[in-house]
Each structure stands twice: as structure tokens, then as C-alpha cells.
Amino acid sequence: MDDLAVQRGERILFSKLSARVVAGEAVALTGANGAGKTTLLRVVAGLTAPLAGTVRFEGVRGDLPNDDARREACHLVGHQDGLKGARAAGAELEFQVLWTGGDRASAEHAAARMGLTRLLNLPVRVLSAGQRRRLALARLIASPRALWLLDEPLSPLDAESRRLFGQIMGEHLARGGLILAAVHDPLPIPARQIRVGA
Fold first, then answer.
1. pTM of the model
2. d(C-alpha 54, C-alpha 128), whole Å
3. Whole-angstrom Cα distance, residue 19 to residue 120?
4. 7 vs 41: CA distance, rounded Å
């Protein structure tokens, strides 16, 4: 990220933001509500255009085209889980996993890892907020991608689920993955902090 500036309406949320995230690193985006943490994740994901600056993705052989990198190497789990309430939890997970390059076996493994197996026949709408969050996070395991963009990933999780997801994040980093997370609560793994705001 080089000299990024982001505007919402008439207000510039931040400007001249530069940072580099490398393989095996977690970065926690901190700042007040409305500072632009979620918007920054959307800029990196290619869903929002910055007012100024650039986002570059580097691979083994140098810069990668942004669209290719986003399509093949990024997962975005937003503050809202993006799940269909009427669909059975297992069918919803399978749909998302197949869409992002995984398969049925990897979806089943991810559901088991996240403690969701007994809930898979239930409609998503009857799950608790923490269960829905674990379902949304399960695709990170089921269809691996290098860069995880996470918006308040821990907010609805109980202590045991936070511990489990911390372990999963640690494993992802150990394999050379990257995590960029907008947070209010500290991540359960070592993370460099970048404060976002005007």
C-alpha cells in the first residue's frame, strides 16, 4: 500500500497511508469507529477505489496483476457474515467453499475444525451470532488463500472460539500466509499495529 487516501462522501478518512505486509505477518488495523478500517480492507480487496495511492501485490516473480491476486489469493470476511439465512448451514458453507476453489471434503473438514458439524442441517437464520461467524470463517480453512482480510473477526466469538481461531490464524501465518484485520479487540496472535485515521 503506497500513499493511500480514502474519502467517504465529502470527508477524507485518511491520507498518505503506506504499509507493507509480508508473508507470515499479521497486521491489526486500529482506530476509532469511522476511521476507515473497513474501507481500507475494501480498498485492498478491490471493492472500493482509493482517492489516491496504490495497492500492489507481490509474488515470487515480482508484482502480480491486482485482479488476479485478488481473485486467487484473497479472502474477505466482512463485519457482516454474508450468509443466506434460509439456506442450511452445510449447504451455505459448501456453496461458499466451492465458489472460492475448495471442495466438499475440505468444507466438511473446516466445519469439523470450527465445531459446526452438528449444526450443518440447521438454517443459518437460527444460528447464534457466534455460530454464524464461525461458519463464515470456516471457508478460510476450506479454500486456502494467502491473504486474509478480516473485519472484526472476533467480535461475536466466545472465549473458546477466539482461542481456536487464534490457533488457526497462527497456523496460516506459519505456512507463509498474511492477515490484515480491522480490530477493536486485540488479536490472539502477535500482530503489528497500524493506526488508521485522519
1. 0.91
2. 38
3. 40
4. 14
In this structure, are residues 154 and 130 in contact, taking their beta carbons and an 8 Å threshold? no
**Residue 167 corresponds to which cell in the numbers above?**
490457533
Chain segment 85-132, per-residue pLDDT in tens: 899 999 999 999 998 889 999 999 999 999 999 999 999 999 999 999
How far is the C-alpha of 77 from the C-alpha of 122, rounded, in Å? 21
* CATH architecture entry for 2-195: 3-Layer(aba) Sandwich (3.40)
Q: What angle do CA 143, 80, 135 make, to 5 degrees?
A: 40
Q: In what order do the strands lie in the sheet with 52-54?
A: 11-17, 2-8, 52-54
- For residue 176, is it left (φ>0), alpha (ψ between -120 and 50) or beta? left
Q: End-to-end alpha-carbon separation of the chain, Å?
A: 17
Q: In one letter, which amino acid is 177?
A: G
